[in-house]
Amino acid sequence: MHRINAGSGTLVSGVGIAFLQDVQGERQTYVHRIYKGGSAEQDGKVQVGDVLEKVEHLPVHGKPLSEIKHIMLGEVGTYVNLLFRRTNPDGSIVQYDVSLMRGQTESFLLKEKQRLQSLLDSDRKQMQHAEIEIEALRGALYRADMHKNQDFDEKQHLTMAIKEKSLKIEELQALIISIQQEIDNMSKDLVDSSDIKEEMQNLTKMLADAESHIIAAKESLEKDQLLTQELQDKWKNEKLARTNCETRIAKLQMEFPAREEQERSYRMHQEQLKAKLEQV
């Protein structure tokens, strides 16, 4: 359950554990219930009956239950360190530490999944724009081959530009596959609910639409090649068109390193997030 901090408006939450206290004995605080979907259940280490000994390295023996709950509550997404004691069936006693995230893990996974989907859509748009640029370059190159007085160096430049853009498209396609796999893996960790199913259906439709755009772009290239004969009459304007293409290529080449650096930072963030989620 989440609460709003009246002083700051911050959303606060616990870790999905209900405690009870032995008020007639040694006033020990023990785990009474573990809520489904909470951080404690996701971690799997805490069990019903375990005795809470410390919260953030502070002993809680003898403290009122209300005070202990107050210490455990915190901003959603932050971690709290707990020390438990467990009595095994053979009578042996063990202590263990656990670091649990406040709030439900699924909400963070869903939020991260949505961020990944936004990044995926952005990369797909970049790839689509790059393919359109390649279509224009290939059309210019084809028409240049038809023109008897076309300079060889200009044709070489167009050929290299198309090759470089094609390699960038392959990189974007690999990046899209990688992000899609992360989204698919993250989907397995989410709670099976109607809202999430609907979200998955929407994402699947968006993926299909993106693939349709790629097919349409390739079909457009084929049509452009068939219309080359008609475009020969407009040869005088090709000098300006090629200049625009070169300017656009230079701009795209400047943008790709920034995208690669953004992706590198994102993957580093992902590794840090996964490391936190796997903390025991």
From TrEMBL:
SMART domains: PDZ. The keyword Hydrolase does not apply. Residues 113-220 form a coiled coil. Residues 1-72 form the PDZ domain. Keywords: Coiled coil. This is PDZ domain-containing protein.
